[in-house]
Automatic annotation (TrEMBL), chain A:
Record's keyword annotation contains ATP-binding: no
Native organism: Catellatospora bangladeshensis
Start and end residues of each ABC3 transporter permease C-terminal domain: 171-282
Gene: ftsX
Domain (FtsX extracellular) ranges: 56-148
Lineage: Bacteria, Bacillati, Actinomycetota, Actinomycetes, Micromonosporales
UniProt GO cellular component terms: plasma membrane
Name the UniProt record assigns to this protein: Cell division protein FtsX
Single GO biological process annotation from the record: cell division
NCBIfam families membership: FtsX_actino
Subunit structure: Forms a membrane-associated complex with FtsE.
Mode of membrane association: Multi-pass membrane protein
Transmembrane annotation, as ranges: 21-43, 170-193, 214-242, 262-285
Physiological role: Part of the ABC transporter FtsEX involved in cellular division.
Length: 291, 226
């Protein structure tokens, strides 16, 4: 009976103030979907780091004029190096095959490069990827070595870009979040004002504080839940339309975003959204409905 | 039942206290008038008893409990033992007489079944039988005040506080309301009434406590307005 009363109050309250409710829900959607996107990006970057760092290699590119002896000397030094986990020798042909494979979506690029233009190299996997500097120190000046390139540095640039996109969406989520909080506080004040007579009578006859406050707080929580569900729908649409279709070419590089992570966002956003809304509502009422 | 011990109440920014070292004791089943000119501090007494305000100094006991130090979450259950009637009725305009009284029960957790049993009874008691489904604007001032009394009494409180309950009513209607309060008092309910209606005080011949400038200047059993 009391639950029914409270629920009816919530729906009536939201409807009475419908423009404010819509504004509140929209800001919540934007804020929560930004938050969800940045959380997804965070998970994604972590997954990518794990995925790529396992395969990360130091490439030792060799001079075109390298002799058989020099190559053998480098090879034996690498084989004996305690910092090295494994070594693969990549010939020019293999390099060309890999290149063709990697850029099969860009035939112009492939046709611009001839099979002999790519240098042969040793692909070296390190036991500790942080030890790149020592490896470069040891091999860069050897006869027959052109350059020593750390692939981790290339990846780091991509991660830096992703990281700044993530920070940007966090900032937007924060700004919209503050707007949403203010709207929640305002909506609750308006609701409490429009029911001031009822509230006065309830206090007079000794209704418990939670009973007076629950409909108002639940109004905000209800809006937050609705907002978080819609924000999650935005993320799903974003994954299907943007990541899986428009940017499908990039997912080879960026790894596909898994449904598991996207679905995880629903309870996370709903939890964060309703908790924040409830706390805001409750604090607003502490100031607004004095006992 | 109700006891004020050396209560002083000074409102913020006020130059002198509204109540100045007031001590008074009201027994169970008493009917007490607080009288005095406007601004004498008599309304502050009702607010203190309801715990709407706290005393600056001194102690307030209601039902033998010291309420000035009551925790805020205990105030609601404390208020359930007190009924309250005001000059401006404080009814909900979008609810009928029945719904106004039932609302008071509903919000303290009583079931609809209880309301269906108790509300018609108490409306009958205050003389509103047959008018249960009228809205406040369809009732006269006296009838609205009866609804307010019904709402205050439906919970069978130990104490009924009335703050100028006849202030908005004509003399004849006022007397009807007083008869009603008298009847409620006879059921054993302590009634505390703040008023400046000399007619009523003189007719009722009950205990009169006169306040002036925040001090008790007279406390008389079976008194008159004077």
């Amino acid at each position: 009976m009391r639950a029914k009363y409270v629920l009816a109050e919530v729906l009536v309250g939201l409807w009475r103030n419908v423009t404010m409710t819509v504004a509140m829900i929209i800001t919540m959607i934007v804020s929560l979907s930004m938050l969800g996107a940045s959380l997804l990006m965070y998970l994604q970057v972590n997954e990518m780091k794990g995925h790529y760092y396992e395969q990360v290699e130091v490439s030792i590119y060799l001079d075109k004029s390298i002799t058989e002896d020099q190559r053998a000397a480098i090879k034996s030094q690498l084989d004996g190096d305690s910092k090295v986990k494994s070594v693969i020798y990549e010939t020019q042909e293999m390099a060309y095959e890999n290149f063709k494979n990697q850029f099969r979506d860009a035939p112009d690029l492939v046709s611009a490069i001839g099979p002999t233009e790519l240098p042969e190299s040793f692909r070296v996997a390190l036991k500790d990827p942080q030890q790149f500097e020592q490896i470069r120190g040891a091999y860069a000046d050897l006869e027959g070595v052109d350059t020593v390139v750390d692939q981790q540095k290339l990846l780091q640039k991509i991660f830096d870009i992703l990281g700044s996109v993530q920070n940007l969406s966090l900032v937007v989520a924060g700004a919209m979040g503050i707007a949403a909080l203010l709207l929640v506080a305002n909506t609750i004040q308006v609701a409490a004002y429009s029911k001031r007579r009822e509230v006065a009578v309830m206090k007079l006859v000794g209704a418990s504080n939670w009973f007076i406050q629950a409909p108002f707080v639940l109004e905000a929580v209800f809006a937050a839940l609705l907002g978080s569900i819609l924000a999650w729908v935005m993320l799903v649409v974003g994954k299907v339309v943007l990541i899986d279709q428009k940017l499908a070419a990039l997912t080879d590089l960026l790894l596909p975003v898994s449904w598991g992570n996207v679905n995880l966002m629903l309870p996370v956003l709903a939890g964060i959204g309703s908790l924040v809304a409830a706390v805001t509502g409750w604090i607003t009422l502490r100031f607004y409905i004095r006992v | 039942m109700i006891r004020l011990e050396h209560v002083t109440k000074t409102y913020p920014k006020a130059s002198r206290p509204s109540l100045d070292d007031v001590s008074v004791s009201i027994e169970k089943g008493d009917f007490v008038f607080f009288i005095g000119p406007s601004g004498s501090g008599k309304s502050s007494i009702v607010k203190l008893m309801l715990h709407e305000i706290k005393p600056s100094k001194g102690k307030v006991f209601v039902n033998n409990k010291e309420i000035s130090s009551l925790r805020s979450w205990k105030i609601p259950s404390f208020r359930r033992s007190i009924g309250c009637v005001f000059q401006d009725f404080r009814l909900l305009p979008n609810k009928t007489a029945y719904e106004n009284v039932a609302f008071a029960l509903e919000v303290i957790g009583k079931s609809k079944a209880v309301a269906r049993r108790v509300v018609p009874e108490v409306l009958e008691l205050v003389g509103l039988g047959g008018k249960e489904h009228r809205y406040p604007h369809e009732l006269s001032g006296g009838e609205q005040q009866r609804v307010a009394v019904a709402r205050a009494f439906v919970n069978r409180p130990l104490i009924l506080l009335a703050d100028e309950p006849t202030g908005n009513l004509d003399p004849d209607t006022s007397i009807e309301i007083m008869r009603l309060l008298d009847r409620i008092n006879r059921t054993g309910t302590t009634v505390v009434m703040v008023t400046h209606d000399s007619n009523i005080v003189n007719q009722m011949r009950r205990r009169v406590i006169e306040i002036e400038g925040g001090r008790i200047v007279r406390d008389q059993a079976r008194g008159v307005y004077g």
